[in-house]
Amino acid sequence: MRSRLPWPLRWAVVALALGFSAALAMWAFEFGKEIAGLERNAREELAQLRAEVQRLREQSGRDRAVADTAESLVKTERAAQERLAQQVRQLEADKQALQSDLGFFESLMPVAGDGLQLRGLQADARSPGQLRYQLLLMQSGKTIGEFRGRYELLLSGVHEGRPWQRAAPGAKPIQFKQYARLEGTVDLPTDVVIKTVQARVLDSQGAVRATQTVKL
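-> structure tokens emitted (216 positions)
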């Protein structure tokens, strides 16, 4: 069955279809170019983001290394300060020990007179409830025999506002020829304030041979 459209009209319809097809093809081409451009931009931005992430990772690594180094230096400095503090404390202890030894050796200097001498009595009651003491016994003379006897301490002070006096528990036996350095501790009531300490040396017969008193 033949179409009833005249030829001129047919050509017009064909031309219109071709124009529409050309326009559609042009639009598809331009749209494809835009999509390609967007994809290219997206790839470039993705590459830039990856590069930025890598840079930040490297910077973070450097910062972490600096922080670790700083922390290590701080720990080293603290350790050095602790060692110095320990050395200072040790030097103070050595100083006190040397002063004590100096007093002891000074007391070894010979003095006039013969017989038994009690010298260098020192007492320290700074620790609550405890008294530390040391003393030196010497014999001098042309003929020196071995001394046998004992020594005791007599403590005087204040207890609850009242005078207090007591002999340290137990006399200590001694035996020496030329000299003897004696030291020890005495337990005290914590509320007693010691004022004086007297050391007495007795021979084997119980006779007092030497005494010395120090005030605290």
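Residues 113-215 form a domain with the Immunoglobulin-like fold (CATH 2.60.40.770).
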